[in-house]
Design goal:
The protein has 8 helices and 10 strands. The protein is an alpha/beta fold and 243 residues long. It folds into 2 domains: 7-131, Tetrapyrrole methylase, N-terminal domain (Cobalt-precorrin-4 Transmethylase, domain 1, 3-Layer(aba) Sandwich); 136-235, Methyltransferase, Cobalt-precorrin-4 Transmethylase, Domain 2 (2-Layer Sandwich). The strands form 2 sheets. The protein has a 5-stranded parallel sheet with strand order 3-2-4-1-5, sandwiched between helices. The chain has a 5-stranded mixed sheet with strand order 6-7-10-8-9, with helices on both faces. The longest helix is centred in the middle third of the chain and has 19 residues, at 77-95. It binds S-adenosylmethionine. S-adenosylmethionine binds next to strand 10.
């Protein structure tokens, strides 16, 4: 199929700090004809909030239009798919006017990003491109100074919605483990780490790069704590091949 004109960019804005995005991302955001972002039903867009400094650049396209996409997050995949279908149709109509559209993505667009579902729907008809962003895992490593991997170490990335068995296996098979979406699952995750004797190997990070960022190195202090969705657990080993 011949692709119609218009380019759909997934632009990574990083984990939260407004200055932790690339120069390429800032330029793409400032120059876009159309700025697209997910907004919650209360009118807040995390992606747009993180991109606020890029949007304040003097070289921002004065004719830039904005297209908020309101998504009702749900575990019901049918409902989510319908919303992505609708959003993709609307974006496609705009792209057909030969626009450069930038979709703001928290972190990196292709790392658990909602951009993936839009790209999947649009790429047959439109050119899709990506500006990578700093992931939450890289930010967690930087904030704590904990290396993710070195020499022949391996790193597993799991959603905390994984089963106990999957998490236990990953703890055993990989040197390091990043557990995303950790906050709501904390009591179960802490229990698993304790059972495996790995409680002392973990660090918990909430809302990295935001004003209310919280880092906890002593996981025993988190007993009974339920954290926000934007949080993760990084588990490494005490003995590492540093020398
Ligand atoms: C749908 S995934 C998006 C990942 C994102 N695209 C990235 O590159 O990091 C959402 C999960 O990423 C992690 N995350 C994203 N931003 C974060 C932040 N600022 N602080 C802590 N965790 C974060 C959390 O585990 C959250 O549940």
């Amino acid at each position: 199929m011949t692709k119609v004109r218009g380019t759909f960019w997934g632009v990574g804005v990083g984990p939260g700090a407004p200055d932790l995005l690339t120069l390429r991302a800032a330029r793409a955001i400032a120059s876009a004809d159309l700025l697209i972002y997910i907004q919650n039903p209360r009118g807040f867009s995390l992606g747009r909030h993180i991109a606020r400094e890029a949007l304040a650049l003097p070289e921002r396209n004065p004719n830039q239009a904005e297209l908020p996409i309101v998504l009702n997050m749900s575990k019901d995949r049918t409902l989510i798919n319908e919303q992505y279908d609708q959003a993709a149709d609307t974006i496609s109509q705009h792209l057909s006017q030969n626009l450069t559209a930038v979709f703001l993505c928290e972190g990196d667009p292709l790392f658990f990003g909602s951009f993936i579902y839009l790209q999947n729907r649009l790429q047959k008809k439109h050119r899709c491109r990506v500006v990578p962003g700093i992931t939450s895992i890289n930010a967690a490593s930087a904030e704590t100074g904990i290396p993710l991997t070195l020499i022949d170490e391996s790193l597993a990335v799991l959603s905390s919605r994984s089963s106990d068995n999957e998490i236990e296996q990953a703890l055993q098979q990989f040197h390091s483990l990043a557990l995303l979406k950790a906050g709501p699952h904390l009591p179960r995750l802490l229990e698993l780490l304790e059972k495996k004797g790995r409680l002392a190997d973990g660090v918990y990070l909430e809302r990295i790069g935001h004003d209310d960022q919280h880092i906890e190195y002593d996981l025993t202090k988190l007993q009974g704590h339920i954290g926000p969705y934007f949080s993760l657990l990084l588990v490494t080993r005490q003995e590492r091949p540093l020398r």
